[in-house]
Specification:
- The protein is of the alpha/beta class.
- The protein has a single domain, classed as Ribonuclease Z/Hydroxyacylglutathione hydrolase-like (Metallo-beta-lactamase, Chain A).
- It is built from nine helices and twelve strands.
- Helix 7 runs antiparallel to helix 8, helix 7 crosses helix 9 and helix 8 packs across helix 9.
- The N terminus and C terminus are likely disordered.
- The structure holds zinc ion.
Length: 324
């Protein structure tokens, strides 16, 4: 992928425009979702992505660490206002730079960084590729070089004890091949990272849409009142998740239909884009990412898609919620 396309795709995923440090406090909105469960919802790209945290009776777990380290620092301050308990874990939902840039800060505060095992290997090389490789700016190369990789990897599933409550990390397929969903059963809150974008066109750079759709279908069996924290966009519910699944399914269906007809690549791509625009033109990042989504979907459908390898085993469905 050309550097320009990568920059465009990242623009949808993270704010590349530098903001003054004083913006940090306003970088996200903290939303209580249940006792000791909070989402940190990005404000207009200032934090670069959503994050959150869960407080147990003995320890805290943070989910994702933003694109901007000063936003991560602000999150640490907010956690400290609520509890003096140690931040024992930071879970990375996937390796993309807009979700891991505060890792070092939390590690220095004593946290163990946890992710699906692929993320440990991918953090440096795949993020360097994502920002444009050799063509990336020096500042961006430095940011990638400074990323701290997770220390603890798991394969399919991992349960973490925070004292009085356990949270479940479940590997699911779709967005990158190293995605983790975090299920807080006692509060019925699901942190989905970039497996879920609310009313937003996603970044498909490393995605397998064919695997992603069944993942979202499986999650639809969660309790109807479950709260879903997306990687980007406002707080969501299962209906929002179905809408997002529909976007991916429409993209795939339209591309498959276009491939069944004769036509020039450019013309086919434009046809699919026009159909998507009629249905999803109001979604965030449509102008920045939809055209790249169409190109990525054609590449996947034609077996030309380059994604980080190796791809992991098929995902398991999310287990039914358990009590404390
Ligand atoms: Zn993201």
């Amino acid at each position: 992928m050309k550097a320009g396309a990568v920059a465009l795709a990242l623009a949808g995923c993270a704010a590349l425009v530098a903001a003054a440090p004083s913006f940090a406090e306003a970088a996200f909105e903290l939303k209580p979702l249940g006792p000791g469960v909070y989402a940190a919802i990005d404000r207009q790209g200032k934090a670069g992505a959503n994050a959150g945290f869960v407080i147990g009776s003995e320890a805290v777990a943070v989910v994702d660490s933003f694109f901007r380290e000063d936003a991560a620092r602000a999150l640490l301050v907010e956690i400290r206002k609520l509890t003096p308990l140690p931040i024992r874990y930071v879970i990375n939902t996937h390796h993309h730079i807009d979700h891991v840039s505060g890792n070092r800060l939390f590690a220095e505060a004593g946290a163990t960084l946890v992710a699906q095992r692929q993320v440990l290997d991918w953090l440096q090389p795949e993020n360097l590729r994502l920002v444009g490789g050799d063509k990336a700016s020096e500042a961006r190369k430095r940011q990638v070089a400074g990323l701290k990789a997770p220390q603890l990897g798991y394969e399919q599933q991992l349960s973490l004890d925070l004292g009085g409550r356990r949270i479940l990390l479940q590997h699911l397929a779709g967005h990158t091949g190293g995605d983790t969903a975090v299920w807080v059963a006692d509060a019925q809150v699901l942190f989905l990272g970039d497996l879920m974008w609310r009313a937003s066109v996603p970044n498909l750079i490393d995605a397998r849409v064919q695997r992603w759709i069944p993942t979202l279908d499986a999650l639809n069996t969660l309790p109807a009142g479950a709260a879903v924290v997306p990687g980007h966009g406002e707080m969501a519910n299962l209906a929002d998740m179905r809408n997002f699944r529909d976007y991916l399914r429409d993209l795939q269906t339209q591309v498959d239909a276009a491939l069944a007809q004769p036509g020039e690549a450019e013309q086919r791509q434009q046809q699919v884009l026009d159909v998507l625009r009629a249905r999803y033109g109001q979604w965030a990042y449509f102008e920045g990412l939809a055209r790249a989504n169409v190109r990525d979907m054609f590449a996947e459908a034609e077996g030309r898609k380059r994604t980080p390898e190796p791809q992991p085993a098929p995902s398991l469905p999310m287990p039914a919620p358990a009590g404390r």
